[in-house]
Write a structure and sequence with these properties.
Blueprint lengths: L1 H5 L3 H11 L5 H28 L4 H16 L11 H7 L8 H18 L4 H14 L2 H12 L3
Length: 152
């Protein structure tokens, strides 16, 4: 079947796609585009700071990305003392989190996993960092980059 489709003229493929693919909203497409642009910028900046300048590991760079995202989301308040409403709004973007307690449990679980995987699994740490970055809205990503990287 895929061979047949591959041999079809381009215009016919486009016509078929209009019936087989659901168009996505502009908002979602802009979010994806923003993420695709800002993630490499963030990652390169943190690697440059933590690996090149401070001679830390890739794991440390991702640990700092996660830490700074939490700091940003919690409006510069230490999470050991207080959680802001913005913190809960951030975690509630995950459809599985509907309450204050669920957000706290998820946050703790996430950082337990992060702590356990340090010294051995860069891909898990990067996935956690990337997913946390993806939960930010486009304007939040831009604000974060300006706030945390504007001074470097």
């Amino acid at each position: 079947m895929s061979e047949i489709f591959a041999n079809l003229p381009y215009e016919l493929k486009l016509y078929i796609f209009t019936y087989s693919r659901k168009p996505q909203s502009r908002r979602l497409l802009r979010d994806i585009e923003n993420f695709s642009y800002t993630w490499p910028v963030l990652k390169a900046a943190y690697y440059q700071i933590w690996i090149d300048e401070w001679e830390e590991t890739e794991e440390d760079a991702h640990g700092w990305i996660q830490n700074d995202i939490m700091r940003y989301v919690n409006e510069e308040q230490p999470t050991q003392i207080i959680y802001t409403s913005n913190f809960f709004d951030y975690w509630k973007r995950l459809y599985s989190i509907n309450s204050y307690n669920e957000a706290l449990k998820f946050n703790k679980r996430l950082f337990d996993v992060s702590r356990r995987t340090q010294n051995g699994n860069d891909s898990t740490l990067e996935r956690i960092s990337r997913n946390m970055w993806a939960l930010l809205l486009p304007h939040e990503r831009c604000s974060f980059l300006a706030m945390f990287l504007g001074s470097t």
